[in-house]
Design brief:
With about 160 residues, this protein is of the alpha/beta class. Helices cover about 35% and strands about 15% of the residues. It is globular and about 35 Å long.
Length: about 160
Amino acid sequence: MKCSLFLVLFAGTVLLSEQSHGQSLAYRALLKAFYDADFPLVYPSDQEMLNQAVLLDTREMEEYRISHLPSAKWVGYDTFDLSVVDSISKDTPVVVYCSIGARSQEIGKRLMEAGFGKVYNLYGGIFHWVNEGYPVYNDQGATRKVHAYSRSWGVWVKNAEKVY
């Protein structure tokens, strides 16, 4: 009886905890493994901050063409060069993002090393963004498509049409 009660309480705790930030416990653990504890984050719900920042998409061009955040500028990852941000004041808030936030954090570190003072990583990347119901766009306008990077990473996209 005690074992059954414990299992019910444990399962309930896990199910409730999975709703934090609309994400599963597994996704949160994944992000925690990739993120540096001291790198600043911004959440999709912080729309005021996001509206004041320059959004930089650090994914590859193929991913960006499928969809990106509103007004995001593509800067890439493999081909990233600081010259693509020359026109951005180093005092301007900058939010970097990618699929989940790993590549963008690396680009964010490079921006900080170059003197940008207000650099934030979008928590959960574009995957979390669409899972929370926020819009993405391509050259034709709003879209439901998101480049899921690969089939194994695509399991984290829950609220969009996956493209590989």
